[in-house]
Amino acid sequence: MHDALRRLDLNLLVTLDALLVELNVTRAAQRLHLAQPTVSVQLARLRELLDDPLLLPGPRGMRPTTRAEALRTPLRQALEALHLAIAPAQPFDPASASQTWRLAATDYGASTLLLPALASIRSAAPATRLAILELQPAALVRQAELGEIDMALHIAEQAPPELRQRSLFVERYVLVGRIDHPRLKRKLTLKQFCSLEQVIVSPDGGGFYGPTDAALAEQGLARQVVLSVPHFMLLAAVLASSDLVAMVPQRLVAGDTRLKVVEAPLPVRGFEMLMLWPERVHRDPGHRWLREVIAGYTRGPKQTPHL
């Protein structure tokens, strides 16, 4: 093993990591701030040392061989461990920081957590940048390991155990309609609730069944869901301009003067909202600062973060 390590230049491993992320020699060269011919020469050297082609031509760039795919995660972990080993610990100064943070969230998470914290982040760290990406639950771990995202806001029920987590709050559902909705002026019976025409948010697209329907089904009942929309923000606009109603997470409609919020005539199980992040940024001072700022804008029980 030591003979193999002595034959390897650390720069070759850095190049291999970039190639496995980009799957494109030109983009890897740009990522490394090197000339494309230099990266091509290094790839040839890697192929010779590892006795494997590593990257093969594909329909959309290059595709890794089985050996290269097996190297992807341990190589990234080894390089990150080496970086942590040699990097001096530096206190984080938000006023002079210039990081770009990439956060994955639904429109609900962005509206209830990131939007309230945005002014504080911009004021304290004006040279930083924040990219909010659409949450892709099935891809969270891969995106976090590859450095495509630094944090995600997601529900506990679907949180991958591979990521660090912090509980932010527990959300509850309320019944919402336009402010002067004629059917919401008095307390509803369960029968009246089921007779209302309702909207549901279906992030995956086109669904008409959710937690409220599950709660009703336990009692042998069903409601009238006549509209399915993909985003909570669209939902609010629909409710404000029609006689449709919806069961909505309470934080999403807090303070919206267009809407009337009432208690539903049946209990519906809510959800716990989590902050998720990969091990690679767990001890990063800037990331810790960002986590604390966002967590500071939650109302409700918070757990001590895993340190």
TrEMBL record:
The answer to whether the entry has keyword Transcription is yes
Q: Which PROSITE patterns match?
A: HTH_LYSR
Keywords, sorted A to Z: DNA-binding, Transcription, Transcription regulation
Domain called HTH lysR-type: residue spans? 8-65
Tell me the InterPro entries matching this sequence: LysR-type_TF, LysR_HTH_N, LysR_subst-bd
Pfam families associated with the record? HTH_1, LysR_substrate
Record's superkingdom? Answer: Bacteria
Similarity comment:
Belongs to the LysR transcriptional regulatory family.
What is the recorded name of this protein? LysR family transcriptional regulator
**What is the originating organism of this protein?**
Pseudomonas fakonensis
Q: What is the lineage of its organism?
A: Bacteria, Pseudomonadati, Pseudomonadota, Gammaproteobacteria, Pseudomonadales
